[in-house]
Amino acid sequence: MTVSVDLLVIVPLLLVALIGVALALFLQRASGALRATRQVERFQQESASLGARLDAVLDVIIQRVDAVRRHETDGATIVDDLASAMAALDQGVTDAMDLRAPAPLVRSREGILAEVAHAQRALAMVQHGCEIASGPRARSRSTEAEISIKRGYLNLLHAREALSEHVADLAEARDPAQAAWRTFRV
Prior knowledge:
Oligomer: single chain
Shape: rod-shaped
Number of helices: 4
Helix content: over 70%
Structural class: mainly alpha
CATH class of the domain at 42-171: Mainly Alpha
Strand content: under 5%
Largest sheet: none
CATH architecture of the domain at 42-171: Up-down Bundle
């Protein structure tokens, strides 16, 4: 009789312990999934904020460069605007480097960095064109100046569009490396 009494006490205790271990494992996995979701949401918010700031900078400078491209204003008048836009893009690179991307979205951060670098090169091209246009031999080099300004303008448009696409991908937590856009799952 003592054997059956011991068995009647031990089996329920083992079942309670087994349920406790299963519950602890479930809570650990749920905690990890929640932590990963919070990281993705934080990264999305930070990159959306960065994207909005960079888009505002690019919008203003694109309008100014377009005015120069259309000969509505002189290239020398936007030199200060170009310098401030370049400084804002430099700050954008720093901010993008500070973003802590979850592992599946690292490529999106790298894409943002690549497009900011693309915009910086485009601004340098516009700046080069403006320097030529306002330089001592402006008349003899006017075609080169116009080409630099127009190519820089088009590159700014492309960089802005690509940056917007990266931010939109992040808003939906899509991995740009996937051929078919599937939702990221934790």
